[in-house]
Amino acid sequence: MQTKKSHWLRYCWNIGFTAFIGGWAIFLAWIISRYFFAADFIVLEFIGFFWLLGFFVIGTFALFLLGAYVFINRRQLHREVLFTALMLLINLPSCFFILEWHYELNKMIFLKVLNQSGKGQLKLKLIGPNYSNTLGELDPEENKVFCYAPPFKIADARFYPDSLQCIIKHGEKSDTIDFPWYSLGTCKTLVIGPSFFLKK
Questions:
Q1: What pTM does this model have?
Q2: CA 159/CA 121 separation, integer angstroms
Q3: Which residue of 20, 67, 130, 143 pairs with 114 in a disulfide if CB–CB is 3.0 to 4.6 A?
Q4: Are 27 and 102 in contact (CB under 8 A)?
Q5: How far apart are CA 9 and CA 80, in angstroms?
């Protein structure tokens, strides 16, 4: 016997699939822009927010539509119903995972560092009170993206950024300079100029 309202099932599947693929595409584009280019595309966060909000409403409607389909065809259910339900419901843990990952990344700072000092093989290391983080090496005119989670101190029940210094090693020599403070979750470009002057 042919099932009734079979197009409802297709609608539900398409909604779940579109929500899942689209949500991950937006989030991965946001991650790639940070890790590879230290670029903060805020527009992607707005798109992701409205995508989440919109598909929460549409997905809720799809679940009711799927429930109606199951009720109408309760005597002739098939595996596609289960697959469609899973396609819709998988968006819930996926959404929580994305939000948690987004929260963790917003506690980090992404820096694109450009070496214009005229010296090669610069080794960069951040140090502070009870903090040490080796960023990596830079060749002349090379730029790299580094990410780090800055240390914080607690005073008056509030969080305050701890001061950091940057150790720049070049050959057998090393220089220690004050490192600029950045807000959490930001993406910035930092230029190491002659005499290791940092230009934000």
A1: 0.84
A2: 35
A3: 143
A4: yes
A5: 8
